[in-house]
User: Which sequence fits this backbone?
């Protein structure tokens, strides 16, 4: 199949979405398909550029900047994004291309118009991959009220859904959110598990053995540190476990709360905590090989449910997880049933401290976490399963 794969992130961007799109497109090639990744780029001087990556065509289209800018400017630019992309797409060698299927990835919620045009001109089916439900999660977090901006985002969201023949959500808990859409449109929503391709250990620029945490059992968090993660409780935990000189906390990444967390740890005098800026995704395996327990954090105010990409990376590396997440999240049941860590849902540092100590004791006693985590990764989170499911939906 000739598949148009639309997103707003792809390597060399270092986000989890970029890694997922890379793995998905490469698996499409592996299964005999011809994917073309279509992404915006604010840094292009020409309307478009075409790259090739191991059989994947990557079409970059000049578009407004939507990252690392103010909320108002970002909203305006994201609204314009699909129309500018479409304008420049029509100047590219793919302007007359007929696709066998159109797949697009959300967030962002603004790519619907571009997906719609490609779908209509090719008279093909479309598949929407949703990894978080916006604007609902922003309302849950208190970042957005239910006034005019909310109604604007809801209109964009509903249009995006109207373009899709099939929607793939992260967890079964998300299915109920689409009940009305399914009943009105007679289309389908299904669970599409996250995915992550195997990644070889090529080492890491971060060397724990050369740091103040050398020789300790390491709790690691690698990824975005923002409002949605609710990371304050993890710093509280590090303070509670300060007297345990056999334990250390490593935070790698960026985000709106990253500087605040660093300052908080410094003001408390925590020398059992280290911070590093984000690293290349190819270094993650090398980093995790030096660690023992992965940290998953989601703000307890969340009412929508997702399985963070970092959870997949921990499972693939054989690291059990210590999770502080929202009640009702499908991840609670998954961690518990598969016995791949400990999970706290009451947002209590007392509970989290107890679970952390319990998990450290099991890790230290050579519990078989490594095998259990890796088996779960292979069973649920492979790109092969995801591509097979998407292609099946496009062929219906």
Assistant:
């Amino acid at each position: 199949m000739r598949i148009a794969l639309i997103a707003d992130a792809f390597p060399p961007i270092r986000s989890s979405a970029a890694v997922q799109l890379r793995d998905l497109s490469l698996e499409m090639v592996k299964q005999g398909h011809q994917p073309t990744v279509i992404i915006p780029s604010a840094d292009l001087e020409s309307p478009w550029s075409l790259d090739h990556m191991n059989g994947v065509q990557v079409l970059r289209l000049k578009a407004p900047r939507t990252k690392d800018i103010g909320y108002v400017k970002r909203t305006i630019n994201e609204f314009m994004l699909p129309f500018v992309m479409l304008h420049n797409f029509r100047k590219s060698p793919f302007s007359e291309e007929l696709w066998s299927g159109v797949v697009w990835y959300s967030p962002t919620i603004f790519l619907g118009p571009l997906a719609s045009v490609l779908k209509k001109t090719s008279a093909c089916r479309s598949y929407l991959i949703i990894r978080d439900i916006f604007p609902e999660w922003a309302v849950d977090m208190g970042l957005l009220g239910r006034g005019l901006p909310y109604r604007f985002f809801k209109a964009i969201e509903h249009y995006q859904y109207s373009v899709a023949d099939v929607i793939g959500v992260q967890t079964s808990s998300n299915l109920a959110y689409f009940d009305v859409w399914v009943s009105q449109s007679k289309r389908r929503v299904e669970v599409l598990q996250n995915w992550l391709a195997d990644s070889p250990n090529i080492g890491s620029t971060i060397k724990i053995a050369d740091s103040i945490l050398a020789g300790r059992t390491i709790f690691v968090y690698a990824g975005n540190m923002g409002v949605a993660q609710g990371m304050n409780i993890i710093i509280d935990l590090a303070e509670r476990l300060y007297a345990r000189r056999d334990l250390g906390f490593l935070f790698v990444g960026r985000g709106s709360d990253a500087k605040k967390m660093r300052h908080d740890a410094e003001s408390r005098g925590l020398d059992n905590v280290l911070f590093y800026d984000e690293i290349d995704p190819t270094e993650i395996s090398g980093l995790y090989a030096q660690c023992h327990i992965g940290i998953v954090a989601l703000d307890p105010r969340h009412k929508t449910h997702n399985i963070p990409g970092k959870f997949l990376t921990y499972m693939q590396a054989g690291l059990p997880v210590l999770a502080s997440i929202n009640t009702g999240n499908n991840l609670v049941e998954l961690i518990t049933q598969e016995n791949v860590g400990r999970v706290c849902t009451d947002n209590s540092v007392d509970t989290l401290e107890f679970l952390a100590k319990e998990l450290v004791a099991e890790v230290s006693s050579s519990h078989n976490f490594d095998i259990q985590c890796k088996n779960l990764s292979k069973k649920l989170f492979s790109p092969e399963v995801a591509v097979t499911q998407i292609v099946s939906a496009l062929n219906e």
Remarks:
- The chain has a mean pLDDT of 92.
- Residues 2-195+382-394 form a domain with the Rossmann fold fold (CATH 3.40.50.2000).
- The CA atoms of residues 300 and 347 lie 7 Å apart.
- The chain has 14 helices and 14 strands.
